[in-house]
Fold these 2 entries.
Entry 1:
Amino acid sequence: MSVLVGKQTRLLVQGMGKHGTFHAIGCRDYGTAVVGGVTPGKGGTTVEGFPIFDSVAQAVRETGANVSVVFVPPPGAADAIMEAADAGLGLVVCITEGIPTLDMVKAAQFLEGRPTRLIGPNCPGIISPAEKCKVGIMPGHIHLGGKVGVVSRSGTLTYEAVHQLTSLGIGQSTCIGIGGDPIIGTNHTAALKLFNEDPGTEAIVMIGEIGGSAEEEAAAYVRDHVKKPVVGFIAGQTAPPGRRMGHAGAIIAGGKGTADEKMKAMAAAGIHVVKSPADIGAAVAKAIKA
Amino acid sequence: MKIHEYQGKQVLASFGVPVPRGQVAYAVAEAVKEAKELGLPVVVKAQIHAGGRGKGGGVKLARTAEDVESVAKAMLGMTLRTHQTGPEGRVVRRLLIEEAMDLEGAREMYLAIVVDRASGAPVFMASAQGGMDIEEVAAKDPAAILKEVVDPAVGFQPFQARKLAFGLGLPAAVLPKAVAFMQSLYRAFETVDAALLEINPFLLRKDGALLALDAKINFDDNALYRHPDLKELRDFDEEDPLEVEASKFSLNYIKLEGGSVGCMVNGAGLAMATMDIIKLAGSSPANFLDVGGGANAEQIRNAFRILLADPEVRAVLINIFGGILRCDVLAEGVIAAVKELGVKVPVVIRMKGNNEEKGKQMLRDSGLNFMTADGMTEAAQQVVAAAGGAR
């Protein structure tokens, strides 16, 4: 079982440049039903066997697509997200890093009241291994189908955690990369809610990092609503204050958003917090045995 | 991206925000000339990308041209230490020569605009406690900070400005000016794609004038591509030279103080986690370095060069997790870089991807000082030991 993506997913790729095309092939090879690409002005052509459309709306009409993944570069990415929402897609996954924050503020507001859920931006995407459905850039082969949900702000750190789980024979239901930007479509709390309500998810891994207060809010949600075991890790315990650590959202500002605060809040909520990123898999193994 | 106070004031002035008259000076003679043109007395303000300059001795009133000369002479080239610069301080290379304000009977308040993650929108903040450390105010008296969340579709509305003005207890006579002031600030924030705009203090003078006595503007780095004019305001002297060098190659590098283990990682989250595990293994990371998706030979070489330009680095940990990455190609790049640069420090490599075993064998066969590790714990322990043990 899974959340958000699975056998029912019919995927469109917005932005079929070199990057988008490469990953469209990767998703298709993994088993995802990739039904077409969108490049305004290139409608009617075919790239690597994918039919290309001028607009998301046209693509949806002709292919029955229900999910889109956005590879459009930063200047046009927020607009691409809004176009997907306008076309009525239920899920948009935006991989693009570098979107101006005020553009995302507008896009987030545009999405309010519309039936479109956004994941990202600046994220690796989402994958449900048991259903062989991959929407994003993550390496499919490190994943194993199973019952642990993973939610993370990171890309490669998520792969590290997944690799540990798979090595222990612990499979994943769905792995959601929510992205490293300050304004994102789906935060930790929203992802935890999905996992909490998913009968196919029996335990959850929550990976966060410095900056903002999303992990603290998620901890409160766990405390009040989640009975399934949750394992947590926060990256950036050694990060200096005031510096943007790669991700636009990873910055300790005004003394707030430290790893310490997040780890404390999570532990207080009953989350099994590990200090070392290498201990995530082992902590899950222990938590599901208990 | 940060800019200086005088640049922030120039930007605000272009949006109609009243600021004190002033000019930047790079040399003593220039400072004196400008002071005379402005009319004495003037305030001489050190320009660095950090706050707390007043307390650190970086803001001085000068009543005569001779005062300006001696103050400027002392300030230019001085290492200014504030609670925001760290103990090493910052060398002062620019001064703002500004008309002195009559602060008798004046009120100093605080205004700021920042994008609030929780609301997903910009928030306009105000506090009657200006001139103070806003974090202190937030800690001691959070209710003292007024907030108006801006609706992105319509922008900052006059009624919101009035709410803040009434909340600050501004006199009725000043209301229209205060509303206009705040609206200009918001227009500036939105137009320049600021991440933070802070006016501390915002001054209500005895004669009823409103001015921005200080201006701090941080630009959203992601938006700079559409503001080439603002990109020009960057002051490379205010940045660590290695970090500037790294950015030229699209490498995300941040130097950390007192660390002895250099690290090179793909992905910001994994890079932070790698720093963390080095600390847990008993040593200190010397840097954050995200090579991003481009772990190719050229990037590896550039990354090594930058890492090793830091003399404190005694060992290097490479942690690359690539799904489609070919480890033999990565190994090739690392071997070439180490040979070309004559790298002497031990290098621990932990890599995950295709052809892992082949890549590891290549490193072992190279005859160079490489160690390979399978998991992050092993990698961290190896590199800490190689760096000379716990410190």
Entry 2:
Amino acid sequence: MQTMHPVIVSGRHFLDTALFPGDEFEDRMLQARELMEIHGLDGLVVYGNGEHSAALTYLTNLAPRMRWALAFIPRQGEVELVVAGPERDLHFSRASTWVKSLTAYDKLDQVARPWADTLRAVGGQGRLRLGLAGARHVRQHVLNDVARSVGQEAGAWIDVDADLDRRMECLRPREVRAVRSNLARLATIAKLSREVVSAGGKAADAVRAAEKASLLDGAHDVRTLFSRDGGLTIQPFERVEPESSPVFAGYIARRELGYWTEVLVSHNVAPTHAQEIIDVLARMVAVAKAGTLVSELEQLRSSRAAGAKQHSFTARAVAQLGLVIQEKKPGDKLQAGGIYSLRAGLIFPNQTAAIGSVVVLVHDTSAEVLLESHPAAMANPNTR
Amino acid sequence: MSAIERLQALRGLMRDANLDAFFGVSTSYHNFLDPDPVLVVTGCKPMGQSAFVVDVQGRLSVLVTPAWDVERMRRAVPGASVQGVDDIADAIGTLLESAKHIAMAGMSNLPYQVAARIRAAVKAGATEGDEMLRAAANIVTADRRAAAERAVRIAETAYEHLLAIARPGMRERELAAELHDIVRAGGADDNFMLINGSLHGRGITVAGDRILECGDVMVIEITPSVEGQFVQLPRTAVLGKPSAQLVADFELLRQVSLRGMAAAKPGTQVSEIANLMNAALTDAGYGDYCRAPYMRVRGHGMGNIANQPGDVTTANHRELEEGMIFVIHPEQYLPTVGYLLVGEPVRIAAEGAVPLTARPVQLDVIGA
């Protein structure tokens, strides 16, 4: 789900060697080198920035907080990182990666040029075959800088994003553990948001509480969206504004050690509306398994309630969770080992809405429920 | 409202340049130091890649992603044509089909693949319009000043809270979570916040797991945004009794800051202010430290709308103008005491820099 990206990612991120020991990243680097073998690459450049860093974080654990970073990966030999930002801050980045060599971006040439020269010497050729990961997020000026330093125009580089994305969609066991841990904390945060609303708080109070609690419990990042109008429209926090309905609809995405999870929360909805969403989610979970088309899941979301229509906020029924929250297209299929958020949202004739989600770990023939977020009915419908 | 004034300014610049159309694109990635084109003309910060087009009649069209966020933009610019789209490149091409003389802004912040698709979709070709957008973004408006003043009040409230609750045994990030909540409750839509405590800091970064302890010097930057206007409050506090060296060095930097502020008048070049501050530190024997990695800049403007006067460095020869709002901060690593933050957010008035804070910077002592 798109949320409002902050100017700096300010939560907790570090290299957790208990959860992700050195051999984990050695194995991921083997994957990267297999990819290079398949594409006949001499070297791979990996880009990540403060907003999008899945490939970079997957391979190096580094997740830039603002600006960007590049990893230079040869077929054999050491990985080098170049990090944009003041040199005085480099040691902070050092604490979050297993990579030993970090250089400030204004010295890019001192890293990229010898890297490329070494590749040429090893390969015995002038023209290198280079791969680029994170290609869909790279800015032109960065590409120009790197191309200039390696002495080869970037236009001919091989975009390996699709291949790397496929590998990353099926989470590794340690990644699953990280996501499970995150989901457990997210469940607590979602519960807290409901409690705030039950106690008479506004929607903005609820998401503020969720943000604070997430940061206190060590989240890497937390994003929220909420509704001021009973769930009809969903927005980021912009300013203190009046709210017109006791019906709460909110979205919370929580990142921990680079891994994202999300939950859609509704509270104080009419019991029949809550049941509609619960039924939709149950239908989706029942058919979810490896190979299920996203379009099949989308078709299960039609409501039996007269006059109810699909909420535009949940137009994309399925999002893959992990180092990125990636909304899936109708033609995509669920993959075994992938963790997905199944979403439902309806707008009802009385001009309120309900949303909800279930997070599942997909197996070959079934889906394991990791987090259920069903709309909660209001205690006394007669008070509306 | 400020956005209307900025849009009017852009329309005027377009007329002067004989443009048929102007388009600006915003990425979902919000840069602290650069104007966000869609935010500049609409007053609404987009969540996803978004774009605006102003045509030769001055009519505004806005393209919003994700499509479900369209109502928020419609509320912000009720007079504009607003579409929720899945992809901005094709939609921009359609809006600009009949335009011949086009300027564009924001392209360099886009992912290169998206920028290439937009260039291909805009058949007429377009010239760079980033300077034009910056000129419109940086006009002085009463709303912008009011937003800055509100942001400063939020920052000072948060800092007062920090002074009240910070104590040995607390983790940096616990403090940061508390301040994040205060800043949100005050109405800030974003906050660039850095908090560190150490006996001898080498720089400053986001709050981490470090447990604060007696003797730690805390460096704090609280930078809330109100309606897209950031202001920055740079502060230093010490847990427990400060050393005589710390008191002396902090006072040195405070005097350097005051000297910079005293020099900041309309017509003064930014470089003069940086040079003055560097000279003062050189006179005190710290000339070798007036460079990376011991410091970065002596202050800076702040996006996401107006960003002038840019970085306060010896290389920036822009002249200060009335109405500019930025931070003057000679923050600095000193070999004696480590990294210290000192400075004020200021507005340039006719008579010179006016600090926006109610409580001037001082070395705050917690729990001595």
